[in-house]
Task: inverse folding
């Protein structure tokens, strides 16, 4: 046994010399059952901030509205477009009298920004029908459709997002009475769904000066016409126009990054290395900003010898101190395989559970120093060892699918040489006799 151990130590020493020539260094070397386990933590990780070409935002059941000036990610503006359908029952009798019309939105609990300031909401009627582009199945954050120049209604209000407050915006009575009269006359404009959409193409929600963005539940959004009945027992009633065709409800998002660290990032200049951003990389859902990670030195493991295997590979990513608060950072982030053109493939799963990885999230509320996301890259790294130039894949770090397409959660993460919060990547490599 002593002879075998000495042999292994000698072999490990030879590998050490070889690794130093290849750019590796070891933290630790041990032997077990005739094999050497080597801990490698000096692998390079290429880290870049990437701007994706487009972000789908339709059919997700979320209405967004507001404006927020984020010092790191820029001036973010969000608005929403959607169609309304006619009430299922809309017969108007002689004793029915029009009262008012309003749009009602119920909060979904989401916010981004400063909830102590008032929210300004403006509602506009569309003058252009919502349509999908040719060969497209989605509407995107860059899409927009023409509206009337003047709003149908405006409102300034304070919201309690965690209470999921309801917002009621009184709309112009001229429009409400116009719709009422069309129903009363059984006019062609309200004779069917197609005729209705030709007349009333939909609504757009836009924002004025504010510093917060709120989310609303699209499934509960309604336009409501109130009326009363002339009788001895006077009561209040209404017709409801619910949101229709959920695939055509989408959020328009604009990001002005002037004066921010990522001001140069756009769909033309869509990749900035971390070393040009003070050794940091950026992530934000809905504005299409993700972080790309590439591990080009994985192939060098083959230089350690013919018989070896990655036993464990762990990536720990830390947000840079003083760039985040708990309310605006994602608690779940995924790593998605992507080719060189950012075409996305599989989301990484765990080697032991087989389920999707969301980053084993730790939040340091006390010192703001040890917040981290931890990932198991064992299966990914073993696949990369066998990959060629065509099949090799990098990783995009981003929030989960739904959150990425409906929220502005964001991160600034450090690379391996960041002075405040470093990314760490460690591999345990098994060398056989």
Result:
């Amino acid at each position: 046994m002593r002879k075998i151990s000495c042999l292994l130590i000698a072999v490990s020493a030879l590998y050490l010399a070889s690794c130093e020539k290849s750019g590796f260094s070891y933290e630790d070397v041990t032997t077990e059952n005739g094999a050497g386990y080597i801990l490698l933590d000096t692998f390079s990780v290429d880290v870049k901030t990437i701007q994706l070409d487009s972000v789908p935002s339709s059919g997700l059941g979320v209405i967004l509205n507001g404006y927020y000036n984020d010092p790191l990610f820029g001036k973010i503006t969000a608005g929403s477009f959607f169609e309304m359908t006619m009430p299922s029952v809309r017969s108007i009798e002689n004793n029915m009298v029009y009262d008012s019309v309003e749009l009602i939105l119920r909060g979904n609990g989401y916010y981004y920004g400063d909830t102590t300031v008032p929210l300004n909401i403006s509602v506009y009627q569309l003058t252009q029908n919502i349509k999908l582009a040719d060969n497209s199945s989605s509407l995107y954050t860059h899409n927009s459709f023409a509206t009337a120049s003047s709003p149908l209604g405006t409102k300034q209000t304070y919201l309690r997002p965690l209470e999921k407050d309801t917002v009621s915006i009184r709309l112009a009575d001229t429009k409400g009475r116009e719709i009422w009269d069309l129903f009363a006359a059984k006019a062609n404009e309200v004779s069917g769904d197609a005729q209705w959409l030709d007349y009333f193409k939909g609504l757009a929600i836009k924002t004025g000066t504010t510093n917060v963005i709120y989310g609303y539940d699209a499934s509960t959004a309604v336009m409501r016409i109130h009326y009363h009945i002339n009788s001895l027992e006077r009561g209040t009633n209404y017709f409801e126009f619910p949101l229709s065709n959920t695939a055509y409800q989408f959020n328009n998002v604009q990001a002005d990054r002037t004066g921010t660290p990522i001001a140069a990032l756009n769909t033309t200049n869509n990749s900035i290395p971390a070393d040009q951003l003070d050794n940091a990389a950026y992530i934000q859902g809905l504005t299409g900003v993700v972080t790309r990670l590439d591990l080009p030195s994985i192939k060098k493991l083959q230089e350690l010898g013919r018989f070896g295997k990655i036993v464990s590979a762990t990536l720990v990513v830390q947000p840079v101190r003083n760039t985040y608060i708990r309310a605006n950072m994602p608690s779940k982030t995924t790593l998605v395989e992507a080719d060189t053109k950012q075409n996305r493939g599989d989301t990484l799963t765990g080697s032991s559970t087989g389920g999707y990885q969301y980053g084993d999230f730790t939040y340091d509320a006390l010192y703001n120093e040890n917040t981290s996301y931890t990932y198991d890259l064992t299966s990914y790294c073993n696949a990369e060892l066998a990959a060629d130039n065509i099949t090799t894949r990098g990783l995009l770090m981003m929030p989960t699918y739904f959150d990425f397409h409906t929220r502005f959660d964001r991160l600034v993460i450090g690379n391996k040489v960041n002075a405040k919060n470093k990314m760490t990547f460690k591999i345990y490599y098994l060398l056989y006799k």
